[in-house]
Amino acid sequence: MSQLPLPRIVIALVALAVLLGGGVAYGVAQVSAQQAAAERAAVEQAAGERAAEERLAVAQAAVGQILAQASEAQAGLSAQVATAEEVLATSDGKVADDAVRVALADQVATAKAAAAAGPPEVADDATLAEVEAAETAATGWATTLREAAEALAGRTEEVRAAQGAWETAQAEAAAAAADLPAAKAALEHVTYQLGISVRDSGYTIEWTRGDGAPASALDLLTGHRAEGQAALAAAVDVADLGSVRAAAERREAARVAIEAAAWDARATVADGTNGKLPIGDLCPMGVGPEGQDQYLRCDAAAAWERLGAEFEAQFGKPLRVEYGYRPYDWQLQVLDEFGGGLAARPGTSNHGLAVAADVPVDDGFQFGRPEFAWLAANGPRHGWVHPDWARQGGGREESWHFEYVG
Ligand SMILES: [Zn+2]
Q1: 125: pLDDT confidence band, cut at 50, 70 and 90?
Q2: 401 alpha carbon to ligand 1 midpoint, in Å?
Q3: Which of 260, 294, 336, 362 is the most buried (most CB within 10 A)?
Q4: What's the CA-to-centroid distance between 97 and ligand 1, angstroms?
Q5: CATH number belonging to domain 272-406
């Protein structure tokens, strides 16, 4: 036997052993790689599941938050609906235009429907997609509630404002109704006075023109007189306070303008004779019942003041001059109105010299009354007398007429 085969066997065995060993090692390595991949996959899957769970949890939390807020809004909306219904009830018949209440009623219905709609359902085992869909629905629900609340608040405020305006208008109307009688009385008074001014200024124009008054003074008075006539002719709605007041203001303004222009016109022809006295030389004694300024010669006025102080101490009321100085045009008018039998001829009355005063009959200056008796008895101590012709049985019987004799 040769020794060679043995080593070959050994070599072969060794080679086989090497081959086998390598195959085992390879196989072992192969198995390990598969395991690692599987483990990685498991880890990744676990991570993916955790991430999905987290997303689901976040989405669920978001839905919960939205629903909580929406539920709060729902409760608030219900309270607003109650308020709006109360406003609707209290404003019934108390707005100028009911359209604003109809709009609120419509909005109440809308709000009630929104408040009645429930929140979206989310099952405990809902998938992420279902939870996300619920989130969208919850957001929509919350938006609907918020918009309904805002619209309802706006409409409610509109009705409140309309009712406030209506109540203000009612109060103003009531105040106007309460003020109307007094305003009408004032209008009646100024209308009467303006009528006198328009009437008398006709005499003023005629007389001063005849006496040579300048055209400028006549034009001015004529213009104011025309405005006075227009003011008297202008229509007045006597049921409307504004109309009554406006008419009274216009008539009063016209009256004042006529009176001022009349005195200015008289001044242009003043020559110091009866009825033609310069007004600057006289002293004012107030305003007569027709709204015309009254004057007396200043020494007569001073004496009247002293007499009046005694009278007031005795009777507790002022000694008023109803008519004092009577300019020529007024004398012409009085003559026309009462005739020569009752009125002095123009240019002859002591009124034209500003030394006669007529006292108000209604203040007690009638024959037999204490006021008249006192003035007739005490006037002479201050130069004021009741003339014989005016006494009871004296001819003309003017219990109101007193003259200053100094
Ligand atoms: Zn008189």
Answers
A1: confident
A2: 4
A3: 294
A4: 63
A5: 3.30.1380.10
